[in-house]
Amino acid sequence: MTATERFLKYITFDTTSDESSETCPSTAKQLVLADYLAKELENIGITDAMRDKDGYVYGHIPASTGCENAPKIGLIAHMDTSPDVSGKDVKASMITFDGQNAPMVDDRYIGEQLIVTDHTTLLGADDKAGVAEIIAACDVLLHDESIKHGQISICFTPDEEIGRGADKFDFKRFDADFAYTVDGGELGGIECENFNAASVKLIVHGVNTHPGSAKNKMRNAILFLHEFISLLPPAETPAHTEGYEGFYHINEIGGDETTAHLHMLIRDHSDEIFEKRKAFVKEAADYLNRKYGENTFDLTVNDSYRNMRVIIDKHPETVQRAKRAMLACGVTPEITAIRGGTDGARLSFEGLPCPNLSTGGMNFHSIYEAIPVKALEKMAEILVELVSEK
């Protein structure tokens, strides 16, 4: 089976994760795909393929004869899809892009075959494309003895989209010297730095009373919440930033006059600016508590992951190896910074250097998600080259 054929099968599984769940994986439906993938690995010849109780899928390809001392290289992708957009009943089709029939796709893809949805769900290229590319590459390695390689370690993780993909990762079972997440965007991307990330939860406490007699009595939590939002820099949002620019991103609000709440993401590549952003929201809450009374604004800020560049810079060969593999396959590598995060960020800080590689997909977490067929197949080719020992 080609990477494309595998991908089209995997996206039929609904694997949306759920941040409100306390289980691992956060949704039982992720286990359905995990079991299927463990069987897929077994079917192509990986004899130790298994799914553990937390929903992680592991497997290994032994080193070729003579390559037993080569580096043990890991390949990682995640099975879940973002809860931002439905991943249920994905209806994918293959189109020839004409510049108009796939929104938010650059004109340089005109004439290419794209896989898209009917614009009612996301596609799932993030990150089932990575899963498909890894398995397609492993299939080649297992059936072409002329390709020499060290041990290859494979893992498919749950719950990456809600920041928990590395929570139960079994480093001992995985057994690699370094690894790559295959979870990036357009073909050629090599990402060795990512956002520093924190999540903010704010609960605002008010006092409600009949609006007809509320003067000097009502303390409207909704208006208090609005005042907090008004203190945030209006140009420092995802819609106004790019490249290395960080942001504040409000992704949920709700409530009534008595209690209102807000969820927000803080992101920045710079460690220094990241700390300043967190301090700013705390200072805003403190200011409003002084204005409206202690404990009116109940703010919690939790770090999610850190920028892995400080780790990857100590292991430059991981990036150089990826660059060589892409060039050997006729793809121009582009070193970029992730405007997001991956499992690899946390894994890197826990001792497994783990740059992120492209999948070829675009417009992730969107009904306009798409991936070129050519990119799916080319990434599988690149992964074979990546783990090969010359």
CATH structural fold name of the largest domain: Aminopeptidase
Percent strand equals: 15-25%
Which regions have little confidence, pLDDT < 50, spanning 5+ residues?
Answer: none
CATH architecture type of the largest domain: 3-Layer(aba) Sandwich
Q: How big is the Rg?
A: 23 Å
Specify the CATH class of the largest domain.
Alpha Beta
Class per helix and strand makeup: alpha/beta
Record the strand order, biggest sheet.
Answer: 1-2-6-3-7-14-8-13
Verbal overview:
The longest helix is centred in the C-terminal third of the chain and has 22 residues, at 271-292. It contains 10 helices and 15 strands. The protein is α/β, with parallel strands linked by helices and 390 residues long. The chain starts with a helix and ends with a helix. The protein is elongated and about 85 Å long. The strands form 3 sheets. The protein has an 8-stranded mixed sheet, with helices on both faces. A 4-stranded antiparallel sheet has the order 10-11-9-12, covered by helices on one side. A 3-stranded antiparallel sheet has the order 4-5-15. 30% of the residues lie in helices and 23% in strands. The chain has 2 domains: 3-194 and 307-387, Zn peptidases (Aminopeptidase, 3-Layer(aba) Sandwich); 196-305, Alpha-Beta Plaits. A hairpin with a 3-residue loop joins strand 10 and strand 11.
